[in-house]
Amino acid sequence: MLVINKTTSSSVILIVYLTTNLLQLSAGFAGFTPTASPRFDTFCDSIVASWHVPPSGEVESVDEVVRSCGGAIQGIRELPLIGKFYLNRADDGFVFYDCGTYSHGPVILNSAASFKLMTSISMTNNFRVILIADIDSSLQLTSSKALCLPKATFRSQQNDDVIGFSGPDVMSSAPDYIVQNSIQCRMSLPNQPWMLQRSQWESHKETYISIEKKSSSDPQVPYQSWVETIDGGLSISVGSVCTSSGQVKEIIRTFSNGKLINVLKKEGNLI
User: Fold this and answer.
1) What is d(CA 251, CA 111) in angstroms, rounded to the nearest whole number?
2) Distance between CA atoms of residues 99 and 262, nearest Å
3) Which long-range contacts (CB under 8 A, 24 or more apart) does 186-192 make?
4) Which of 83, 225, 84 lies closest to 75, judged by CA?
5) Can you say whether the dihedral through the CA atoms of 117, 50, 146, 38 is positive or negative?
6) What's the confidence (pLDDT) of residue 203?
């Protein structure tokens, strides 16, 4: 059982993290087993839809982008609300999952340049949380915002005023929670250049954990989100928690010598 706890001293966290990281890179994560990589068509089925955007509740769409020469789906174009950002499936920094969650950011860090980290976390089939973070050249968070968006079809089914909402101030760190499911992609060797299509996918599930989940009939479930740089930028954690159900989802991008070496998605429940 893995419990994420932020109360441990920073020096102990650093020693444990670096030791664990070396072991993980040489032999994979303990308890992780090979799994199939996510399918882009399944990802599209989850995210390509109409969404209500705050504050007006107007409908905007995530669209598929089709290759002009062959008709194959090349990527997606995000909502106008966030600039119709184009996510190309051939972009090694674009890591996506069957559930509709994705993380987009650089695979090589330039110490002289700032960058934008964009994450969309599918909390349920009908709700997702978008987090946009700006990281400066010293790998510190300079600004961030979170948006919670319901699908347009969900609003129609509920027949209410679900319009989506801007999240509260983004938290500076993740809450304590018990990890139940994890999936990661990494290169087979730590010195290999990051290439998503050649990465290894592995998963781990804590089958013996039993947690009583809370339930909520409120369609506008309150979500809180965070963006956190760990150990001076060695890892960047982005996640969201449903304070009503206790559900937590987190994506961690880990770098070594300025290069991306691992992307880990974890799911669990608040302690």
Assistant:
1) 22
2) 19
3) 186/24, 186/25, 186/28, 186/261, 186/262, 186/263, 187/261, 190/25, 190/26, 190/256, 190/261
4) 84
5) negative
6) 97
Rounded CA gap, 81 and 141, in Å? 22
Cα radius of gyration rounded to whole Å, the chain: 18
Predicted confidence at residue 57, as pLDDT, reads 81
The string over 86-114, giving b where at least 16 C-beta atoms fall within 10 Å of a residue's C-beta and e elsewhere, is ebebeebbbbbbbbbbbbbbbbebeeeee
Residues with pLDDT less than 70, the chain: 1-30, 70, 155-169, 207-222, 232-233
Helix (H) or strand (E) holding 143: strand 141-150
Q: Nearest Cα to 131, choosing from 122, 149, 118, 150?
A: 118
Instruction: Give residue 247's Cα distance to chain centre.
Output: 14
pTM, two decimals, is 0.82
Nearest to 130 by CA among 107, 161, 100, 154: 100
Query: What pLDDT is attached to residue 159?
Result: 44
